[in-house]
Structure to design on (577 residues):
């Protein structure tokens, strides 16, 4: 075990009921802040949060949904995570579905999962319309606080309803508990059974149902809580889609830590909500981090303060060598643009340029890169707060064993330190398998039980993990050279002229793969005429080629004026390129 692992600061929990009941003892401390309607900010205390979940779980149990599958289709809102945890506490299976999918796809996933109930927001219910009937669910639970008026009827035939309001169901659970019904306290949990069914985002053009257990999720969240620097005094702005396992596990970790979460009500209002909620922590994907940094750089240029900024960076670096840290007061204007109190950002979901880690550190914000995959609940490694390595994706979390598998003359063997190969994982964070897909499950594991991530990487001498690319994205040139497009994309994204890019192989007239950069120029470049755009992008790509060995250089450029099609977690759908 690495000497850089932090000491454990937070307890583990045997099941979700134990976690939810324990956090209720934090009383009136705020767990959630959220925006209702256009501008009203509301708060939900830890006690209210815990009570709602236990009562909701009791109601679900009374409706006969123990062991059944329950979908959730909604935008980010306070009821989302309560529905998620309420389902798990009822010993049911939660099926989070991306609300951005086409209505037919949403219904298809709900049907494939054989869901008996669905939690749904008014907006998503309207989106699905009459298609919702095709899901053939027994119960529909509408998640809305706006315009809600409590249920006025008696409870004698309450279970005969098909459509419920979320808060009515919570009230029904309270009624049952007041009447002496043990509800969820009568359940013995199998923490190794499926409790969550997650359909992967389909960046390869296909989706599989990942089966996760309570042990998977709780262990992973516990490791996250103990490896990151957060405390009960922290405030987070929740930006990522809640259906994504990355965001869900982070929220479970924050629940363990005892911090506060502020829910961002729209991707359009992130910068505004940073100033409104003044978070100390953020959990983001690289695209968000890149966008934020480019906005900061653009403001510095607009104000003509580039030289002043660079001198301040040199000054504060020098002062830190004598243990005097003045970054936050010196760069208060930059910190203010991020709300004024931001200290730490966790970044995962895709490869992060190490240069961004350095640049954020320059003005006093720590950027911790982590790595994971849905099949690992989803965390595999994270840079511990005790020792950050800029280019690394961190140390493997304590609950799992990670190895590197390389190919030697057609035979797979474990790699030594600094040898490249596929990252494979075994441990309590690894999924149970793919739903009703034994063949895909078998193909995803080695003969000795390690999950094949499909990512290529290596370990350094301190046990830190590095990722070099996706196995499926690997470009093999006609001369046998291997090129990882993510490495070239890092260089391109450092350019102010480029907003987004993807590096792929296009075959030429000789049917040979040619390294091709598909580029979405920055808005400032798009304001030029077509000839100007071509000239500017070509010049900048040539500057990148100067930094690369000849076999990795970009030989073909394609310019597009619209953003790439992405998943809801902001990953480019490469299969459509």
């Amino acid at each position: 075990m690495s000497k850089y692992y932090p000491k454990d600061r937070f307890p583990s929990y045997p099941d979700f009921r134990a976690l939810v009941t324990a956090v209720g003892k934090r009383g009136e401390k705020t767990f959630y802040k959220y925006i209702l309607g256009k501008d009203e900010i509301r708060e939900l205390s830890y006690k209210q949060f815990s009570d709602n979940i236990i009562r909701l779980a009791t109601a679900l149990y009374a409706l006969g949904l123990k062991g059944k599958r329950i979908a959730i289709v909604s935008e980010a809102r306070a009821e989302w995570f309560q529905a998620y945890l309420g389902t798990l506490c009822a010993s049911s299976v939660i099926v989070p579905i991306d609300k951005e999918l086409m209505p037919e796809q949403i219904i298809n996933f709900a049907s494939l999962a054989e869901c008996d109930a669905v939690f749904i927001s008014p907006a998503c219910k309207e989106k699905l319309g009459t298609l919702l009937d095709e899901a053939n669910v027994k119960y529909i639970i509408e998640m809305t606080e706006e315009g809600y008026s409590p249920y006025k009827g008696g409870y004698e035939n309450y279970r005969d309803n098909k459509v419920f309001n979320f808060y009515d169901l919570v009230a029904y659970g309270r009624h049952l508990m007041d009447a002496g019904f043990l509800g969820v306290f009568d359940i013995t949990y199998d923490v190794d059974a499926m409790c969550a069914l997650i359909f992967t985002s389909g960046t390869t053009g296909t989706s599989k149902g990942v089966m996760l257990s309570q042990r998977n999720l709780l262990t992973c969240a516990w490791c996250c809580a103990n490896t990151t620097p957060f405390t009960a005094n922290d405030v987070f702005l929740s930006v990522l889609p809640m259906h994504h396992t990355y965001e869900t596990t982070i929220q479970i970790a924050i629940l363990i830590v005892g911090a506060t979460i502020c829910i961002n009500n729209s991707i359009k209002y992130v910068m505004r909500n940073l100033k409104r909620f003044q978070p100390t922590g953020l959990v983001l994907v690289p695209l968000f981090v890149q966008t934020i940094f480019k906005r900061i750089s653009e403001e510095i240029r607009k104000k003509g303060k580039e030289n002043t900024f660079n001198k301040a960076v040199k000054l504060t670096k020098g002062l830190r060598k004598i243990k005097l840290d003045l970054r936050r007061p010196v760069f208060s204007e930059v910190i203010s643009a991020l709300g004024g109190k931001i200290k730490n950002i966790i970044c995962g979901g895709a490869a992060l340029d190490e240069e961004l880690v350095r640049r954020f550190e320059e003005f006093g914000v720590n950027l911790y890169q982590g790595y994971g995959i849905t099949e690992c609940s989803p965390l595999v490694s994270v840079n511990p707060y005790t020792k950050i390595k800029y280019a690394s994706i961190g140390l493997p979390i304590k609950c799992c064993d990670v190895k590197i598998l390389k190919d030697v003359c057609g035979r797979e063997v474990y790699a030594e330190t600094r040898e490249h190969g596929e990252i494979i994982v075994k441990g309590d964070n690894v999924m149970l398998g793919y739903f009703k897909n034994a063949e895909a499950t078998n193909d995803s594991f080695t003969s000795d039980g390690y999950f094949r991530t499909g990512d290529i990487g290596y370990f350094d001498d301190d046990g830190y993990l590095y990722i070099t690319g996706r196995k499926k994205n690997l470009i093999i040139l006609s001369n046998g050279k291997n090129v990882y497009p993510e490495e070239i994309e890092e260089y391109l994204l450092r350019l102010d002229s480029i907003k987004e890019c993807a590096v792929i192989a296009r075959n030429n007239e000789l049917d040979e793969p040619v390294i091709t950069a598909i580029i979405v120029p920055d808005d400032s470049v798009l304001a030029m005429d077509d000839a100007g755009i071509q000239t500017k992008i070509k010049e900048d790509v040539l500057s990148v080629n100067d930094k690369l060995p000849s076999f990795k250089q970009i030989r073909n450029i394609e310019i597009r004026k619209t953003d790439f099609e992405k998943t809801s977690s902001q990953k480019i759908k490469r299969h459509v390129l």
About this structure: The chain has a mean pLDDT of 93. The radius of gyration is 25 Å. The longest helix spans residues 46-62. DSSP finds 18 helices and 27 strands in the chain.
